[in-house]
Amino acid sequence: MLKQYKSNLADDTVSSAFKDLESFKREWEIDCPRATERIRIGIPSTIEHPSHTATPQGGGGAAATLVVAASELFITLLDAIQLGMVSKDQLHPLLVETIQAVNKVTSVEFENKDKIVRWLITLNQMRAAEELDENQARDFQYDMDSAYNGFKATLT
User: Of 103, 122, 13, 14, nearest to 56 (Cα)?
Assistant: First the structure.
């Protein structure tokens, strides 16, 4: 449903008529706080809050593979920032893949995991071609590095 919502808003006619989510809700007298929050975050709740997890400690090869995949995605995300990739359409897919991979490894609310979600919200509120400014890019890199360290700490 989120993909369909985003796809519909990509149409200029729909986008101009829609204005923004709050205006649409007022015009049609819709009260749906959970759906509004889900749209604001931009990812399904099953991705943000996994219902099952792999167990890296003693979980065997499959769990180790999940840990490696999550680590690779964190590193790719951090490298992207260092290479100056600061537009939404460059960062958002990497960030979504990273949180999905992390959630396959652990459901533990590790230190700075909430910053990943906050940045997802920030990026979701941007247009595809919009870019983070220099200060935002530095904050993003710092927060993702901190989240990566928090993630690694859950593995020990």
Answer: 103
